[in-house]
Specification:
elongated; two-stranded parallel sheet; mainly alpha; Rossmann fold; 4 helices; 2 strands
Length: about 120
């Protein structure tokens, strides 16, 4: 048996949403998802498991369609930011995260909707 772990494609940016931020993929992320499905087209894939995040589901949706597989969503795979109203890709947090990044840096997770480790 082989297990392949794939990080979701690049998601849209969400700042201070009125509800929990659960962005889908942006144009680059959709391209990355297409590339993933193409890359695995000739591989034996029998199970696809994902977190409930829209970005994760969209990343593997095309693969599941092309393989005729039903996607298995596992709530326990959700991320630490499951209650946050902002989503920025990790690489943008220091430069564009402002007060949100400051709270992350200071481990004030409960103030931004993150689970406390």
């Amino acid at each position: 048996m082989h297990v392949l772990l794939v990080r979701h494609g690049r998601p849209e940016i969400v700042i201070d949403a009125p509800t929990v931020a659960d962005p889908g993929l942006d144009a680059v992320g959709r391209w990355q998802a297409e590339r993933l499905a193409s890359w695995l087209a000739c591989e034996d894939v029998d199970t696809v498991v994902t977190s409930p995040k829209a970005r994760a589901i969209q990343t593997v949706a095309g693969l599941c369609t092309s393989k005729g597989l039903q996607l298995q969503v596992v709530d326990d795979l959700d991320e630490i930011d499951r209650g946050a109203h902002t989503y920025l890709p990790t690489e943008l947090l220091p430069s564009e995260g402002g007060a949100y990044w400051e709270k992350i840096s200071q481990k004030r997770f409960d103030e931004i909707g993150w689970d406390t480790p």
